[in-house]
């Protein structure tokens, strides 16, 4: 089984076998990259952060507790790096902004009707870049949660551990983020 | 039920997968009777599907290679250590051949004389080395080209190369008795000893 193989590779890496790390990178690169992309919205930068995350994971592998899920530990490194990167680019008031419950979604512009995308092109690049654009319009702390929730379908508890915030906060942010996106994506 | 808040909250709980079953019933019956909430719920589910949809989000082909090249270099020690661990047989074979071509073999061929450690109060009769009664050897005893009889005591191992252990005596050996007769088994014995030392060095 692939999971067992990964566990074995991690053990080897801990013993100093650098080449065993390759398998770990192969296995997790897609998810780590996608999470970073959801957070920073730029392919080149996402790749840069994802690579850095793997290198840090390798360097700090001794501090990984094998009784816990490796993915969770790895995503935590990646999201921390992505958050740092976003902080450098944007002022804090934006990063820490709250989406008000209800109708107070002044951060978002209205979509003109002629900008609608055809319904059967859910998978199209255009649609995807539109979705990503709307995700980027959310404050950073919502983006990280949406990335973790919708790319690896992590549980609320896992997300709360990765981002070190209470489960209740995770829940509120997912709800608000979902509402905000609903208003943007309902016409897709 | 208040459409704007309570029902929407239930929808989100449902999407989070933690809606209690009696609440689920509440939500279902409300959706059956309320167009607006039905629409809202549909939109939420569509949003989740869009955001979750299998996006063509793959890193570039050389991603893994770039990561591997970016890792700090392994120290030489770890490299050797790993190599030895991964290929124990090859390592043993390599050491074996080094010994084959080295002076060890020559030493064996030239050296047929009885050899035993001096200064340990050992007694030699013909080609037999005797640990006399009352004598305690506190270390390993290695004897080449002769037999060994222990009347006293040896606290370490007794290694007899090209000879025999004569057991008719009442003495004691705390460690192992190793008898090595053939040149190759002698070599193997040396190699195993060497390899053990090599591992000891690496494990320190
Ligand atoms: Zn309603």
From TrEMBL, chain A:
Pfam families cross-referenced by the UniProt entry: Sigma70_r2, Sigma70_r4_2
Entry protein name: RNA polymerase sigma factor
Keyword Transcription regulation: yes
SUPFAM superfamilies noted in UniProt: Sigma2 domain of RNA polymerase sigma factors, Sigma3 and sigma4 domains of RNA polymerase sigma factors
All residue ranges annotated as the RNA polymerase sigma factor 70 region 4 type domain in the record: 130-181
InterPro entries named among the record's database cross-references: RNA_pol_sigma-70-like (IPR039425), RNA_pol_sigma-70_dom (IPR014284), RNA_pol_sigma-W_bacilli (IPR014294), RNA_pol_sigma70_ECF_CS (IPR000838), RNA_pol_sigma70_r2 (IPR007627), RNA_pol_sigma70_r4_t2 (IPR013249), RNA_pol_sigma_r2 (IPR013325), RNA_pol_sigma_r3/r4-like (IPR013324)
Organism in which the protein naturally occurs: Gracilibacillus marinus
Presence of the UniProt keyword Transcription regulation in the record: yes
Similarity comment: family membership: Belongs to the sigma-70 factor family. ECF subfamily.
NCBIfam families with a match to the protein in the record: PRK09641.1, sigma70-ECF, SigW_bacill
Keywords of the record: DNA-binding, Sigma factor, Transcription, Transcription regulation
Gene that this polypeptide is encoded by: sigW
Residue ranges of every copy of the RNA polymerase sigma-70 region domain listed in the record: 24-90
TrEMBL record, chain B:
Protein name (Swiss-Prot/TrEMBL): Anti-sigma-W factor RsiW
Keywords of this entry: Membrane, Transmembrane, Transmembrane helix
Organism: Gracilibacillus marinus
Transmembrane segments: 86-108
Residue ranges of domain Putative zinc-finger in the record: 3-38
Top-level taxon: Bacteria
Membership in a protein family: Belongs to the zinc-associated anti-sigma factor (ZAS) superfamily. Anti-sigma-W factor family.
């Amino acid at each position: 089984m692939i999971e067992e193989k990964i566990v074995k590779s991690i053990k080897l890496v801990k013993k100093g076998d650098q080449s065993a790390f390759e398998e770990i990178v192969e296995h997790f690169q897609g998810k780590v990259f996608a999470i970073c992309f959801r957070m920073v919205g730029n392919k080149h930068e996402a790749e840069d952060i994802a690579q850095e995350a793997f290198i840090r994971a390798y360097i700090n592998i001794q501090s990984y507790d094998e009784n816990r899920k490796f993915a969770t530990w790895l995503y935590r490194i990646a999201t921390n790096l992505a958050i740092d990167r976003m902080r450098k680019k944007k002022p804090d008031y934006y990063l820490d902004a709250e989406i008000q419950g209800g109708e107070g979604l002044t951060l978002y512009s209205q979509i003109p009707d002629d900008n609608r995308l055809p319904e059967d092109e859910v998978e199209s690049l255009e649609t995807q870049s539109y979705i990503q654009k709307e995700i980027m319009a959310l404050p950073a702390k919502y983006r990280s949660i949406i990335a973790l929730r919708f790319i690896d379908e992590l549980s609320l508890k896992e997300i709360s551990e990765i981002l070190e915030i209470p489960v209740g906060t995770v829940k509120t942010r997912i709800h608000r983020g979902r509402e905000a996106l609903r208003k943007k994506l309902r016409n897709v | 039920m208040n459409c704007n808040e309570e029902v929407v909250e239930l929808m989100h709980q449902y999407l989070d997968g933690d809606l209690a079953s009696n609440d689920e019933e509440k939500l279902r019956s409300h959706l059956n009777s309320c167009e607006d909430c039905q629409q809202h719920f549909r939109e939420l589910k569509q949003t989740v599907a869009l955001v979750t949809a299998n996006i063509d989000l793959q890193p570039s082909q050389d991603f893994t290679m770039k990561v591997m090249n970016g890792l700090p270099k392994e120290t030489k020690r770890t490299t050797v250590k790993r190599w030895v661990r991964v290929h124990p047989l090859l390592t043993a074979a390599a050491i074996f051949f080094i010994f084959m071509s080295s002076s060890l073999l020559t030493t064996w061929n030239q050296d047929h004389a009885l050899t035993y450690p001096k200064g340990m109060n050992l007694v030699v009769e013909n080609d037999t080395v005797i640990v006399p009664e009352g004598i305690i050897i506190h270390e390993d005893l290695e004897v080449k080209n002769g037999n060994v009889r222990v009347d006293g005591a040896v606290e370490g191992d007794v290694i007899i190369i090209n000879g025999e252990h004569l057991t008719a005596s009442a003495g004691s050996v705390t460690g192992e008795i190793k008898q090595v007769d053939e040149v190759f088994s002698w070599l193997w014995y040396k190699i195993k000893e060497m390899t053990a030392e090599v591992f000891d060095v690496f494990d320190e």
